[in-house]
Amino acid sequence: QVQLVESGGGLVQAGGSLRLSCAVSGRAFGYAMGWFRQAPGKAREFVATISWSSDDTRYADSVKGRFTISRDNAKNTLYLQMNSLKPEDTAAYYCATKRGSSTSDYERVYDSWGQGTQVTVSS
Questions:
Q1: N or C end of the chain: which has fewer CB within 10 A?
Q2: Which of 117, 121, 114, 115 is nearest to 87 (CA)?
Q3: In angstroms, rounded to a whole number, what is the distance separating the alpha carbons of residues 17 and 116?
Q4: At 88, is the secondary structure helix, strand, or coil?
Q5: H or E segment at 5?
Q6: Among 99, 81, 94, 89, residue whose Cα is nearest residue 119
Q7: Residue closest to 11 by CA, chosen among 89, 116, 94, 113
Q8: DSSP secondary structure string, 30-77?
Q9: Which pLDDT score is estimated for 27?
């Protein structure tokens, strides 16, 4: 059983930055992780993913060059550094784990999810 708790969301002006954290507990050794987001009235979408060893990362085109995913396995924590935020980044952000160490942008392979943290970017 894996438990995930996101934090770090909030209200920020366009062009600003936020860093999201995801605290992981339970049996998640060796798992890849990802960030997804869901805006009101829209489907949840992939944001970024990172392998267990951090040697592979992937990003959605909409955030590439602005967001950075990282992890600290010693601290059981996943991060998402978000810079140059835009109003269209407004969403609830979720972290998730998937079995296996390799990355994936496919939502259905992720089997443990956090409750989400809200990010609101004002124009």
A1: N
A2: 121
A3: 18
A4: helix
A5: strand 2-7
A6: 89
A7: 89
A8: T-EEEEEEE-TTS--EEEEEE-TTSS-EEE-TTTTTTEEEEEETTTTE
A9: 83
